[in-house]
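Hey, quick one: can you model this chain's 3D structure?
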Amino acid sequence: MTDYLLRATAGGIRLFAAVTTGLTEEARRRHQLSPLATAALGRLMTGGLLLAAKLKTNEAITVRVQGDGPLGELVADAYGNGMVRGYVTHPLADLPLNEQGKLPVGAGVGQGQLFVTRFTNLKQPFTGTSPLVSGEIAEDITEYLYISEQTPSSVALGVRIQTDLQVEAAGGFFVEPMPEATDEEISKLEENLRKLPPVSTVLLQEEGAEKLLQALTEGLPLKIHDRQELQFSCPCSREKVEAMLISLGPEELASMEQEGKTEIVCHFCTEKYSFDSKALAELRLEAAGEGHGEDRGED
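Sure thing. Here's the predicted structure for all 299 residues.
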């Protein structure tokens, strides 16, 4: 089933709901993630996509979690066009289930900071930060929105993993009252939030994002505005890796050339780019200003 995000309103309340099962499974497969790392990164990528839902198509957002838990740093890049990528420093880190029989994401993340960087059409990216509240990701993003952006909101994220370690369901929602929201609408929303089942349980149903929105807006005039497809995708390319290698300079490339072969692995998608001594020699000449090939700069 295709992953997707819905944008909606209910009176003076703005809502976003996403199904991210496929892209979370893609991240698990590419990075060979443990169940704990799958749950944590799946939540972070979903949270990033929900925040990016307010951006323009050519804009992006990076959500970075720096905790002292066994997972290390987690990073997700989400784009206004529905693309997302991410990685975990320690993808194999795992912990026993907690007393509720759930993956202890908070313990895996630990204490630390959440950083959110927005890449908009402004000249300089803007980065906000807030302390981690629980390490469970959703609560941390909610706290960040309240502290750094003065936005009262509610974020919920869920990832359910099968016994064969594949992702059975993943997704979440982001809800925020707009200035014109009435006290009655906010009270009804809060009542619905208290009654809402776990996100992953709702997402197991057909049309999971629609079901989430309906449960959140029971008694309110729900209006779904659009649907956007989502997917795990990385903009890395051989050309961009070549440009990075050229930037190292001819001396560094000469040293790599002597070793005979170099392999560069993308942190975000694990794609491998191999360069033999001949390819490295060509890049070295280009770095020294002696190449005559095409411009290898990034788009």
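One thing worth noting: The chain has two domains: 4-232, 238-287.
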